[in-house]
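Example 4.3 (complexes with small molecules)
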Amino acid sequence: LMPSNPKNDNSFLERANCRAKGGASGFKVAILGAAGGIGQSLSLLMKINPLVSVLHLYDVVNTPGVTADISHMDTNAVVRGFLGQQQLENALTGMDLVIIPAGVPRKPGMTRDDLFKINAGIVRTLCEGITMYCPHTVVNLISNPVNSTVPIAAEVFKKAGTYNPKRLLGVTMLDVVRANTFVAEVLGINPIDVDVPVIGGHAGTTILPLLSQVKPACSFTAEEINYLTNRIQNGGTEVVEAKAGAGSATLSMAFAASKFADACLRGLRGDANIVVCAFVDSQVTELPFFASKVRLGRAGVEEFYPLGPLNEYERSGLEIAKKELGQSIAKGTYFITKA
Ligand code: NAD
Ligand code: LMR
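Answer. The structure with (2S)-2-hydroxybutanedioic acid bound is encoded below.
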Protein backbone atom coordinates (compact mmCIF):
# COMPACT_ATOMS: atom_id res chain seq x y z
CA LEU A 1 0.00 0.00 0.00
CA MET A 2 1.29 3.46 -0.85
CA PRO A 3 1.96 5.46 2.36
CA SER A 4 -0.17 8.57 2.51
CA ASN A 5 1.35 11.97 2.16
CA PRO A 6 2.36 13.17 5.68
CA LYS A 7 0.97 16.63 4.90
CA ASN A 8 -2.37 14.88 4.63
CA ASP A 9 -3.88 17.83 2.78
CA ASN A 10 -3.97 16.29 -0.65
CA SER A 11 -1.38 18.80 -1.80
CA PHE A 12 0.64 16.06 -3.48
CA LEU A 13 -2.40 14.87 -5.38
CA GLU A 14 -3.35 18.40 -6.32
CA ARG A 15 0.11 19.10 -7.64
CA ALA A 16 0.09 15.82 -9.53
CA ASN A 17 -3.32 16.55 -11.00
CA CYS A 18 -2.27 20.06 -11.88
CA ARG A 19 0.78 18.71 -13.70
CA ALA A 20 -1.38 16.00 -15.21
CA LYS A 21 -3.59 18.58 -16.90
CA GLY A 22 -0.71 18.93 -19.34
CA GLY A 23 -1.96 21.03 -22.19
CA ALA A 24 0.69 23.54 -23.08
CA SER A 25 3.12 21.92 -20.67
CA GLY A 26 3.11 18.40 -22.04
CA PHE A 27 1.42 15.46 -23.68
CA LYS A 28 -0.45 12.47 -22.31
CA VAL A 29 0.98 9.17 -23.45
CA ALA A 30 -0.26 5.61 -22.87
CA ILE A 31 1.79 2.46 -23.37
CA LEU A 32 -0.28 -0.71 -23.93
CA GLY A 33 1.83 -3.76 -23.09
CA ALA A 34 3.87 -1.66 -20.65
CA ALA A 35 5.00 -4.59 -18.48
CA GLY A 36 6.66 -6.48 -21.34
CA GLY A 37 10.22 -6.58 -22.59
CA ILE A 38 9.79 -3.54 -24.83
CA GLY A 39 7.14 -1.98 -22.60
CA GLN A 40 9.28 -1.67 -19.46
CA SER A 41 12.28 -0.03 -21.14
CA LEU A 42 9.98 2.15 -23.23
CA SER A 43 8.13 3.24 -20.08
CA LEU A 44 11.46 4.29 -18.59
CA LEU A 45 12.44 6.24 -21.71
CA MET A 46 9.05 8.00 -21.94
CA LYS A 47 9.27 8.91 -18.23
CA ILE A 48 12.46 10.87 -18.99
CA ASN A 49 10.97 12.61 -22.04
CA PRO A 50 10.33 16.25 -21.07
CA LEU A 51 7.44 16.49 -23.57
CA VAL A 52 5.43 13.95 -21.54
CA SER A 53 3.31 15.25 -18.63
CA VAL A 54 1.23 12.11 -18.04
CA LEU A 55 2.30 8.51 -18.64
CA HIS A 56 -0.29 5.72 -18.46
CA LEU A 57 1.10 2.17 -18.18
CA TYR A 58 -1.41 -0.52 -19.21
CA ASP A 59 -0.97 -4.29 -19.38
CA VAL A 60 -2.84 -7.45 -18.47
CA VAL A 61 -0.12 -8.36 -15.92
CA ASN A 62 2.41 -6.72 -13.58
CA THR A 63 1.63 -3.03 -14.10
CA PRO A 64 1.40 -2.25 -10.34
CA GLY A 65 5.06 -3.15 -9.89
CA VAL A 66 6.32 -1.49 -13.04
CA THR A 67 4.30 1.65 -12.23
CA ALA A 68 5.52 1.87 -8.63
CA ASP A 69 9.09 1.47 -9.83
CA ILE A 70 8.99 3.97 -12.72
CA SER A 71 6.98 6.51 -10.69
CA HIS A 72 9.94 7.05 -8.32
CA MET A 73 12.04 8.59 -11.09
CA ASP A 74 12.36 12.32 -10.39
CA THR A 75 11.23 13.55 -13.80
CA ASN A 76 8.13 15.57 -14.63
CA ALA A 77 5.71 12.98 -16.01
CA VAL A 78 2.96 11.77 -13.65
CA VAL A 79 2.79 7.96 -13.92
CA ARG A 80 -0.36 5.91 -13.46
CA GLY A 81 -0.78 2.14 -13.81
CA PHE A 82 -3.76 0.22 -15.24
CA LEU A 83 -4.29 -3.53 -15.03
CA GLY A 84 -6.59 -5.58 -17.19
CA GLN A 85 -9.38 -4.95 -19.67
CA GLN A 86 -11.72 -3.31 -17.14
CA GLN A 87 -9.14 -0.52 -16.67
CA LEU A 88 -8.54 0.06 -20.38
CA GLU A 89 -11.06 2.92 -20.47
CA ASN A 90 -9.24 4.92 -17.78
CA ALA A 91 -5.88 4.06 -19.33
CA LEU A 92 -6.93 5.51 -22.70
CA THR A 93 -9.19 8.44 -21.85
CA GLY A 94 -7.60 11.78 -22.79
CA MET A 95 -4.44 10.35 -24.38
CA ASP A 96 -2.60 12.31 -27.12
CA LEU A 97 -0.39 9.36 -28.08
CA VAL A 98 -0.93 5.61 -27.59
CA ILE A 99 2.06 3.32 -28.12
CA ILE A 100 1.26 -0.38 -28.56
CA PRO A 101 3.98 -3.00 -27.92
CA ALA A 102 1.44 -5.60 -26.63
CA GLY A 103 1.67 -9.13 -27.96
CA VAL A 104 3.84 -12.22 -28.15
CA PRO A 105 7.39 -12.08 -29.56
CA ARG A 106 9.13 -14.56 -31.88
CA LYS A 107 11.20 -17.57 -30.91
CA PRO A 108 13.93 -19.03 -33.15
CA GLY A 109 12.51 -20.62 -36.31
CA MET A 110 9.38 -18.44 -36.37
CA THR A 111 8.48 -15.71 -38.85
CA ARG A 112 6.72 -12.54 -37.73
CA ASP A 113 3.63 -13.80 -39.55
CA ASP A 114 3.56 -16.80 -37.17
CA LEU A 115 2.58 -14.25 -34.47
CA PHE A 116 -0.56 -13.21 -36.38
CA LYS A 117 -2.79 -15.84 -34.72
CA ILE A 118 -2.33 -14.36 -31.24
CA ASN A 119 -1.40 -10.75 -31.90
CA ALA A 120 -4.14 -9.93 -34.43
CA GLY A 121 -6.80 -10.41 -31.73
CA ILE A 122 -4.82 -8.43 -29.13
CA VAL A 123 -4.40 -5.50 -31.53
CA ARG A 124 -8.07 -5.62 -32.49
CA THR A 125 -9.21 -5.47 -28.84
CA LEU A 126 -6.87 -2.60 -27.97
CA CYS A 127 -7.87 -0.64 -31.07
CA GLU A 128 -11.56 -1.14 -30.28
CA GLY A 129 -10.76 0.50 -26.95
CA ILE A 130 -9.14 3.41 -28.77
CA THR A 131 -12.25 3.94 -30.92
CA MET A 132 -14.32 4.25 -27.76
CA TYR A 133 -12.08 6.14 -25.34
CA CYS A 134 -9.58 8.25 -27.34
CA PRO A 135 -10.61 8.15 -31.03
CA HIS A 136 -8.49 11.19 -31.94
CA THR A 137 -5.20 9.96 -30.48
CA VAL A 138 -2.04 9.31 -32.49
CA VAL A 139 -1.26 5.57 -32.49
CA ASN A 140 2.24 4.08 -32.72
CA LEU A 141 1.82 0.37 -33.48
CA ILE A 142 4.77 -1.90 -32.65
CA SER A 143 3.09 -5.34 -32.26
CA ASN A 144 4.07 -7.82 -34.98
CA PRO A 145 3.45 -8.62 -37.74
CA VAL A 146 3.38 -4.83 -38.32
CA ASN A 147 2.65 -5.39 -42.04
CA SER A 148 -0.70 -6.89 -40.97
CA THR A 149 -1.44 -5.25 -37.59
CA VAL A 150 -1.53 -1.72 -39.07
CA PRO A 151 -4.18 -2.77 -41.64
CA ILE A 152 -6.08 -4.47 -38.77
CA ALA A 153 -6.04 -1.24 -36.75
CA ALA A 154 -7.17 0.75 -39.81
CA GLU A 155 -10.14 -1.56 -40.37
CA VAL A 156 -11.17 -1.47 -36.71
CA PHE A 157 -11.11 2.34 -36.84
CA LYS A 158 -13.01 2.40 -40.17
CA LYS A 159 -15.68 0.11 -38.76
CA ALA A 160 -16.20 2.51 -35.85
CA GLY A 161 -16.13 5.54 -38.16
CA THR A 162 -13.11 7.02 -36.35
CA TYR A 163 -10.34 6.27 -38.87
CA ASN A 164 -7.88 9.09 -39.41
CA PRO A 165 -5.07 7.71 -41.61
CA LYS A 166 -2.77 10.57 -40.57
CA ARG A 167 -2.84 9.34 -36.98
CA LEU A 168 -2.03 5.64 -37.41
CA LEU A 169 1.67 4.84 -37.71
CA GLY A 170 3.35 1.44 -37.84
CA VAL A 171 6.76 1.67 -36.18
CA THR A 172 9.62 0.67 -38.50
CA MET A 173 12.15 2.90 -36.75
CA LEU A 174 14.17 -0.10 -35.55
CA ASP A 175 15.00 -0.92 -39.17
CA VAL A 176 16.32 2.63 -39.61
CA VAL A 177 18.23 2.45 -36.31
CA ARG A 178 19.84 -0.83 -37.39
CA ALA A 179 20.58 0.46 -40.89
CA ASN A 180 22.26 3.56 -39.47
CA THR A 181 24.34 1.39 -37.12
CA PHE A 182 25.48 -1.17 -39.71
CA VAL A 183 26.20 1.45 -42.39
CA ALA A 184 28.20 3.54 -39.91
CA GLU A 185 30.25 0.45 -39.06
CA VAL A 186 31.11 -0.10 -42.73
CA LEU A 187 31.91 3.59 -43.25
CA GLY A 188 33.86 3.83 -39.99
CA ILE A 189 31.91 6.86 -38.79
CA ASN A 190 29.60 7.76 -35.88
CA PRO A 191 26.04 6.39 -36.45
CA ILE A 192 24.64 9.68 -35.20
CA ASP A 193 25.83 11.26 -38.46
CA VAL A 194 24.21 8.61 -40.68
CA ASP A 195 20.72 8.62 -42.16
CA VAL A 196 19.51 5.58 -44.13
CA PRO A 197 15.97 5.62 -45.54
CA VAL A 198 14.30 2.22 -45.10
CA ILE A 199 11.07 1.68 -47.04
CA GLY A 200 8.51 -1.07 -47.66
CA GLY A 201 7.42 -2.91 -44.53
CA HIS A 202 8.74 -4.61 -41.40
CA ALA A 203 9.51 -8.26 -42.19
CA GLY A 204 12.32 -9.96 -44.13
CA THR A 205 12.48 -8.89 -47.75
CA THR A 206 9.76 -6.25 -47.25
CA ILE A 207 12.41 -4.26 -45.36
CA LEU A 208 14.16 -2.29 -48.10
CA PRO A 209 17.09 -0.04 -47.17
CA LEU A 210 17.86 2.58 -49.84
CA LEU A 211 21.65 2.45 -49.69
CA SER A 212 21.91 4.69 -52.76
CA GLN A 213 20.32 7.50 -50.70
CA VAL A 214 22.48 7.27 -47.56
CA LYS A 215 23.48 10.55 -45.96
CA PRO A 216 26.30 11.53 -45.90
CA ALA A 217 26.68 10.74 -49.61
CA CYS A 218 28.85 7.64 -50.02
CA SER A 219 29.23 4.62 -52.26
CA PHE A 220 29.41 0.91 -51.51
CA THR A 221 30.82 -2.08 -53.35
CA ALA A 222 28.37 -4.75 -54.57
CA GLU A 223 29.61 -6.98 -51.76
CA GLU A 224 28.95 -4.28 -49.15
CA ILE A 225 25.45 -3.68 -50.54
CA ASN A 226 24.63 -7.39 -50.30
CA TYR A 227 26.02 -7.65 -46.79
CA LEU A 228 24.24 -4.51 -45.54
CA THR A 229 20.89 -5.32 -47.15
CA ASN A 230 20.88 -8.85 -45.72
CA ARG A 231 22.00 -7.73 -42.27
CA ILE A 232 19.32 -5.01 -42.11
CA GLN A 233 16.59 -7.34 -43.39
CA ASN A 234 17.58 -10.04 -40.88
CA GLY A 235 18.44 -7.82 -37.90
CA GLY A 236 15.38 -9.03 -35.99
CA THR A 237 16.23 -12.69 -36.59
CA GLU A 238 19.83 -12.03 -35.51
CA VAL A 239 18.53 -10.91 -32.09
CA VAL A 240 15.90 -13.70 -31.86
CA GLU A 241 18.62 -16.31 -32.45
CA ALA A 242 21.06 -14.71 -30.00
CA LYS A 243 18.32 -14.64 -27.33
CA ALA A 244 17.75 -18.35 -28.06
CA GLY A 245 14.10 -18.62 -27.01
CA ALA A 246 14.01 -15.70 -24.55
CA GLY A 247 12.26 -13.36 -27.00
CA SER A 248 13.19 -10.76 -29.60
CA ALA A 249 14.65 -7.26 -29.62
CA THR A 250 13.42 -5.29 -26.62
CA LEU A 251 16.15 -2.79 -25.67
CA SER A 252 17.01 -1.51 -29.15
CA MET A 253 13.27 -1.54 -29.91
CA ALA A 254 12.43 0.53 -26.85
CA PHE A 255 15.14 2.99 -27.92
CA ALA A 256 13.74 3.12 -31.47
CA ALA A 257 10.14 3.44 -30.22
CA SER A 258 11.12 6.25 -27.88
CA LYS A 259 12.87 8.12 -30.73
CA PHE A 260 9.78 7.60 -32.88
CA ALA A 261 7.34 8.70 -30.17
CA ASP A 262 9.46 11.77 -29.49
CA ALA A 263 9.27 12.68 -33.19
CA CYS A 264 5.46 12.28 -33.08
CA LEU A 265 5.21 14.50 -29.98
CA ARG A 266 7.46 17.17 -31.48
CA GLY A 267 5.24 17.06 -34.58
CA LEU A 268 2.12 17.46 -32.43
CA ARG A 269 3.81 20.43 -30.72
CA GLY A 270 4.25 22.04 -34.13
CA ASP A 271 8.03 21.70 -34.58
CA ALA A 272 9.18 22.07 -38.19
CA ASN A 273 10.96 19.46 -40.32
CA ILE A 274 10.16 16.32 -38.33
CA VAL A 275 10.85 13.58 -40.88
CA VAL A 276 10.73 9.84 -40.15
CA CYS A 277 10.20 6.56 -41.96
CA ALA A 278 6.93 4.92 -40.94
CA PHE A 279 4.50 2.26 -42.20
CA VAL A 280 1.36 4.23 -42.99
CA ASP A 281 -1.75 4.53 -45.17
CA SER A 282 -0.05 5.68 -48.35
CA GLN A 283 -0.38 6.51 -52.02
CA VAL A 284 3.36 6.47 -52.66
CA THR A 285 2.95 3.03 -54.32
CA GLU A 286 -0.12 1.10 -55.48
CA LEU A 287 -0.28 -0.65 -52.07
CA PRO A 288 -2.71 0.76 -49.47
CA PHE A 289 0.04 0.83 -46.80
CA PHE A 290 3.73 1.40 -47.26
CA ALA A 291 6.72 2.53 -45.19
CA SER A 292 8.52 5.58 -46.50
CA LYS A 293 9.70 9.00 -45.43
CA VAL A 294 6.93 11.22 -44.09
CA ARG A 295 6.81 14.61 -42.38
CA LEU A 296 5.04 14.73 -39.03
CA GLY A 297 3.09 17.70 -37.72
CA ARG A 298 0.10 18.71 -35.59
CA ALA A 299 -2.21 16.52 -37.70
CA GLY A 300 0.10 13.48 -37.57
CA VAL A 301 1.42 12.44 -41.01
CA GLU A 302 1.30 15.69 -43.00
CA GLU A 303 3.43 15.04 -46.07
CA PHE A 304 4.77 12.09 -48.05
CA TYR A 305 8.15 12.26 -49.74
CA PRO A 306 8.66 10.53 -53.08
CA LEU A 307 10.86 7.42 -52.98
CA GLY A 308 13.49 9.25 -55.03
CA PRO A 309 15.71 7.66 -57.65
CA LEU A 310 16.24 3.93 -57.05
CA ASN A 311 19.05 1.91 -58.63
CA GLU A 312 18.42 -1.42 -60.30
CA TYR A 313 19.18 -3.44 -57.15
CA GLU A 314 16.64 -1.39 -55.21
CA ARG A 315 14.03 -1.51 -57.97
CA SER A 316 14.11 -5.30 -58.03
CA GLY A 317 14.08 -5.36 -54.20
CA LEU A 318 10.99 -3.15 -54.29
CA GLU A 319 9.13 -5.54 -56.58
CA ILE A 320 9.89 -8.47 -54.25
CA ALA A 321 8.91 -6.41 -51.19
CA LYS A 322 5.61 -5.28 -52.69
CA LYS A 323 4.50 -8.83 -53.49
CA GLU A 324 4.86 -10.09 -49.91
CA LEU A 325 3.64 -6.81 -48.43
CA GLY A 326 0.43 -6.92 -50.48
CA GLN A 327 -0.38 -10.37 -49.11
CA SER A 328 0.32 -9.38 -45.49
CA ILE A 329 -1.83 -6.25 -45.83
CA ALA A 330 -4.70 -8.25 -47.34
CA LYS A 331 -4.46 -10.80 -44.52
CA GLY A 332 -4.77 -8.07 -41.89
CA THR A 333 -7.64 -6.32 -43.66
CA TYR A 334 -9.55 -9.59 -44.12
CA PHE A 335 -9.19 -10.46 -40.42
CA ILE A 336 -11.58 -7.58 -39.64
CA THR A 337 -13.73 -7.34 -42.78
CA LYS A 338 -14.61 -11.08 -42.80
CA ALA A 339 -16.55 -10.69 -39.56
P1 NAD B 1 6.81 -9.44 -24.25
O1 NAD B 1 6.15 -10.76 -24.24
O2 NAD B 1 8.03 -9.24 -23.44
O3 NAD B 1 5.77 -8.31 -23.80
C1 NAD B 1 4.50 -8.22 -24.36
C2 NAD B 1 3.55 -7.67 -23.32
O4 NAD B 1 2.25 -7.55 -23.90
C3 NAD B 1 3.42 -8.56 -22.07
O5 NAD B 1 3.67 -7.82 -20.89
C4 NAD B 1 1.97 -9.01 -22.14
O6 NAD B 1 1.36 -9.17 -20.86
C5 NAD B 1 1.33 -7.86 -22.88
N1 NAD B 1 0.03 -8.18 -23.43
C6 NAD B 1 -0.42 -9.35 -23.96
N2 NAD B 1 -1.73 -9.24 -24.28
C7 NAD B 1 -2.10 -7.99 -23.96
C8 NAD B 1 -3.33 -7.27 -24.05
N3 NAD B 1 -4.42 -7.82 -24.55
N4 NAD B 1 -3.34 -6.00 -23.61
C9 NAD B 1 -2.23 -5.42 -23.11
N5 NAD B 1 -1.06 -6.04 -22.99
C10 NAD B 1 -1.00 -7.31 -23.42
O7 NAD B 1 7.11 -9.07 -25.79
P2 NAD B 1 8.06 -7.90 -26.37
O8 NAD B 1 9.41 -8.43 -26.57
O9 NAD B 1 7.87 -6.67 -25.55
O10 NAD B 1 7.40 -7.71 -27.82
C11 NAD B 1 6.09 -7.22 -27.97
C12 NAD B 1 5.69 -7.18 -29.43
O11 NAD B 1 6.50 -6.25 -30.15
C13 NAD B 1 5.86 -8.52 -30.17
O12 NAD B 1 4.75 -8.72 -31.02
C14 NAD B 1 7.12 -8.32 -31.01
O13 NAD B 1 7.16 -9.13 -32.14
C15 NAD B 1 6.97 -6.85 -31.36
N6 NAD B 1 8.19 -6.19 -31.81
C16 NAD B 1 8.09 -5.28 -32.83
C17 NAD B 1 9.20 -4.60 -33.27
C18 NAD B 1 9.10 -3.61 -34.37
O14 NAD B 1 10.12 -3.20 -34.92
N7 NAD B 1 7.93 -3.12 -34.73
C19 NAD B 1 10.46 -4.83 -32.66
C20 NAD B 1 10.52 -5.74 -31.62
C21 NAD B 1 9.38 -6.43 -31.19
C1 LMR C 1 12.58 -6.92 -34.82
O1 LMR C 1 12.77 -6.49 -35.96
O2 LMR C 1 13.50 -7.03 -34.00
C2 LMR C 1 11.18 -7.25 -34.38
O3 LMR C 1 10.28 -7.19 -35.45
C3 LMR C 1 11.10 -8.51 -33.62
C4 LMR C 1 11.32 -9.73 -34.44
O4 LMR C 1 10.53 -10.67 -34.33
O5 LMR C 1 12.30 -9.78 -35.21
